[in-house]
């Protein structure tokens, strides 16, 4: 038996023993996601058990090095672990902007002290991070941001406002883009990390059409940030920001795969949805399978260092369109029952709320129009 076959066998046995049955069922709403942090919320105690067991093996971040809280797995082993988790339909043990966004950026640009200080806490879900990029008038034109960080000796003084900061009111720390030189646009931005409990940080939730309030306006009023929290060089934060955005887009593109595939749609087709809807579901399934194959190839290329830098834009664009279609079809299949907003049968209106939430997929992390511009310029070589 090859080493990888043996790894698969051992992994399967470990998961069989350690993944609680409740964590092998689809999440019914966003409320069941595990985010960790200083003040963790668990809808079910098994969420904590599952997180702790996976974190103890470093399997919340299987391919990160072990000194940083990772599992130290090779790309081949990581792929097997992913397949085995999918085979038993295991829930993600930890939803985390630390894992999907900040972690990769720190691994590339962080000092050893920053890596050792932050990455293990991310891996164990002890600190919850939020992303301070967008500002009023600086969304797609991100480099237009105005939040300033003034040099004050051994620290910076940060002033300004961010907007659409997802879960800022629940986050412990923020990774934040700040202006350290007003004279240059991209070349005057720096990348800072700081504690949301710092004096002068405040947040105000923004209520959405879905009735939820996942994001906030975030205000900084003379916030003192030690210079040791600067990631990368002063005024070179744009490089870190762009690298992180690639990972964010890759993470968002995974929505195209659906948290638990398309079981509910297949079930609807089986139950005898009308012929037109069945045909739409079939077409969706073909596209979803093609996207899955493309995603696997993309991940392999990424791990081998062969990925085109604009590939995350392709994946983000197509993945988010697919996810929106998935939920349109689920609503069509569910009929008027799926529109129920507060009933127990829909777990508090989960289908309708999730459908409304997917409308934002093609905006967050950079809009579809921006992704298409990147694809046109960098992949198709079209004039800008
Ligand atoms: C659910 C959600 C969560 C988010 N979470 C966060 C977060 O945690 N942290 C954070 O920092 N930000 C977050 N954002 C903000 C997000 O990154 C921005 O909304 C996004 O980058 C778009 O910027 P904008 O809203 O300013 O829109 P604008 O840039 O004003 O765009 C408006 C419209 O104009 C189009 N447009 C703009 N420029 C061009 C162009 N050059 N060519 C063609 N079309 C163009 C856009 O595509 C869009 O359709 C979140 C957004 C959403 C919806």
Give the gist of this structure.
The chain has 384 residues and is α+β, with helices and mostly antiparallel strands. It is built from 11 helices and 9 strands.
Poorly predicted parts: none
- Largest sheet, order of strands side by side? 1-4-5-8
Bound molecules: flavin-adenine dinucleotide
Q: What kind of sheet is the major sheet? A: 4 strands, mixed
- Name the overall outline: globular
End-to-end separation in angstroms reads 54 Å
Order of helices and strands: HHHHHEEEEEEEEHEHHHHH
Provide the helix percentage: 40-55%
Structural class: alpha+beta
Whole-angstrom Rg: 21 Å
Count of helical stretches: 11
The overall pLDDT, averaged over residues, is 93
The amount of beta strand, in percent, is 15-25%
The total count of strands amounts to 9
How are the elements arranged and paired?
Blueprint: H1 3-18, H2 45-56, H3 75-87, H4 97-109, H5 112-123, E1 129-132, E2 148-151, E3 155-166, E4 173-179, E5 189-195, E6 201-206, E7 215-226, E8 230-231, H6 237-253, E9 259-262, H7 263-270, H8 275-303, H9 311-334, H10 350-358, H11 368-379
Parallel strand pairs: 1-4
Antiparallel strand pairs: 2-3, 3-7, 4-5, 5-8, 6-7
Helix pairs in contact: 1-3, 4-5, 4-6, 6-9, 7-9, 8-9, 9-10, 9-11
This protein binds flavin-adenine dinucleotide.
The site of flavin-adenine dinucleotide (FAD) has 20 residues, from strand 1, strand 3 and helix 11.
């Amino acid at each position: 038996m090859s080493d990888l076959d043996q790894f698969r066998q051992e992994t399967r046995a470990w998961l069989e023993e350690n993944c609680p049955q409740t964590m092998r069922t689809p999440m019914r709403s966003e409320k069941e996601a595990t985010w960790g942090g200083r003040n963790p919320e668990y809808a079910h105690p098994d969420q904590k058990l599952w997180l702790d067991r996976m974190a103890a093996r470093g399997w919340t971040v299987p391919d990160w090095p072990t000194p940083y809280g990772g599992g130290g797995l090779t790309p081949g082993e990581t792929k097997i672990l992913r397949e085995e988790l999918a085979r038993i339909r295991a829930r993600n043990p930890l939803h985390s902007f630390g894992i999907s966004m900040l972690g990769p950026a720190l691994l590339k640009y962080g000092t050893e002290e920053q890596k050792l200080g932050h990455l293990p806490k991310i891996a164990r879900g002890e600190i919850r991070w939020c992303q301070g990029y967008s500002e009023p008038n600086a969304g797609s034109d991100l480099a237009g941001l105005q939040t300033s960080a003034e040099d004050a000796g051994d620290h910076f003084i940060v002033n300004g406002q961010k907007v659409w900061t997802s879960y800022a009111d629940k986050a412990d720390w923020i990774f934040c883009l700040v202006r350290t030189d007003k004279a240059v646009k991209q070349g005057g931005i720096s990348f800072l990390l700081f504690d949301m409990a710092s004096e002068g940080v405040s947040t105000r939730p923004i209520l959405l059409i879905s009735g939820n309030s996942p994001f906030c306006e975030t205000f900084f009023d003379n916030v003192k940030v030690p210079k040791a929290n600067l990631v990368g060089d002063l005024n070179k934060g744009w490089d870190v920001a762009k690298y992180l955005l690639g990972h964010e887009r890759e993470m968002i593109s995974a929505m195209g795969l659906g948290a638990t595939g398309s079981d509910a749609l297949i079930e609807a087709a089986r139950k005898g949805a009308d012929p037109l809807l069945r045909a739409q579901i079939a077409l969706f399934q073909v596209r979803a399978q093609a996207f899955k194959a493309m995603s696997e190839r993309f991940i392999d290329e990424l791990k081998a260092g062969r990925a085109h830098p604009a590939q995350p834009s392709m994946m983000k664009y197509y993945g988010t369109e697919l996810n929106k279609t998935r939920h349109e079809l689920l609503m069509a299949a569910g009929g008027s029952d799926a529109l129920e907003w507060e009933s127990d049968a829909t777990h508090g209106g989960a289908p309708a709320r999730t459908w409304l939430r997917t409308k934002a997929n093609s905006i967050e992390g950079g809009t579809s129009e921006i992704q298409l511009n990147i694809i046109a310029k960098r992949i198709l070589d079209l004039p800008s």
